[in-house]
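Question: what's this shape?

___
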Amino acid sequence: MDPASFTALTLGLLLALVVVGVPIMVSLGLACLTGLFILTGSMKIALSLVSATAFEALRDYVFAVIPLFVLMGELMARSGCARDLYTLMDRAFRRLPGHLAVATVAGNAIFAAVVGVSVASAAAFSRIAYPQMVSRGYDKQVALGCVAGSASLGMLIPPSVLMIVWGVLTELSIGKLFLAGFIPGLLAAVLFALYVIQLAVRHPERFGAGGTNAQNASDAPTTGLTRDEWIGGIGTSIVVLLALGGIWFGFFTPTEAAGVGALLALVLAFLKGLTLREFREVVLSSARIAAPILTLLIFAQMYSRMLAMGGVAGQVQQVMTALGLPAWGVLALMIVIWLVLGCFIDSVSIILLTVPIFAPIATQLGIHPIAFAIIGILVIEAGFVTPPFGLIVFTVKSSVPDPDVTLGQIFKGSTAYWVILVILAWFIYFVPKIATFLPSLM
């Protein structure tokens, strides 16, 4: 079968399975087996290749980083550290306009460095930050948009599951990807905070100022933090600094840092009063989160090999070259595809489906691989809060303790945040040093 027909058949089969609702794991597996059968002419050889890939993946040391970071995040979330961190941030920014919203952005930025999953951050701060903002007179749309928008930092600020998956698929250094996401992540958090502050200055009535039940910064409680809150808030920051600092300064590999972070999180969780029964639930919950991701990665590696064997990436590259688009035009096409996919499937699946095809094309166009990774993660996260099916938006809707909240309110409130992410992605395309500077120091 010629490369064009093979490309159309395999990608068409994969997209058809995804569209009709077949789980992405099963879709990848069926597409891989079909493609390998066509290439080799033997189902026995195809199954042998899949089993060999699975064996190699399970033996790979780097794969341990995912369950360890997931365990670290679950320990911090279940122990109440997210609530303590939010309280600490609220106290730190209480003199700024819209300080509760700024505290939500700052809390999500730090918590992102623990959890590494946007949906987890959205669920946590929906229960913590939203009730606080509404009780102090904040407009619901503002509060919901802030929670949903800032939760997108979960996949950008390292450690990030998306960066780990991207690194495994493209064979880029995960440590360098973690470093690459640091400055863009801070930039995104700062831009989110500046947006909130200017909105609070222009529309103070939407941030509790002047409302009959409002409580602005000057009326905020003046009681100090409790010992438990100090332990949770400061402890979370220390765990982040030690785990990620070890990677940045070369003391740990990402896998070793994940192990150190999980151990420190365990100590902090027990200091916060986590019981053995709760610890058991944390371990089971971590396994339920990590196991599907690891299984997806096994099929994704086989998917990448099948694409390479069948010349699919080269065929897609020829089609894009035939369009006559400049490099920025091809990138714009990729961004549109990512945003559309973000409306329907999760971010890990988007990376598994597109990166094996897009990454070689980006390299051919002269886009730095690490800068391209950060651009992709930014846009994929933006797709999580875009209508009609932004997954973060649905997570917030299901998590907030308010039955009157509508999806429309969340989508409207979070619009500015995903626009900022897309603008930042384009900025990195034109100034790639934003993403590549820190990795270049390694």
